[in-house]
Amino acid sequence: MGMNKNSIFGWASFVLFLIGATVILLGLLKYLDYAIGFSVVGIGFFAISWAFNALKGRV
């Protein structure tokens, strides 16, 4: 059984959410001097993840 469009959007959304959380945690735990930049990039990944999740069932 293959993956349809909705499951692809779901997995892509989940992976982007994980990448965003990882980038934010890296900024907060390892690279504290650059935490603002890492947080902005992580929030960008969250926004793309939200958009992919919103596209599920519409495309």
From TrEMBL:
InterPro entries: CAL67264-like (IPR047674)
Keywords in alphabetical order: Membrane, Transmembrane, Transmembrane helix
Membrane spanning stretches: 7-28, 34-55
Name the UniProt record assigns to this protein: CAL67264 family membrane protein
Lineage: Bacteria, Pseudomonadati, Bacteroidota, Flavobacteriia, Flavobacteriales
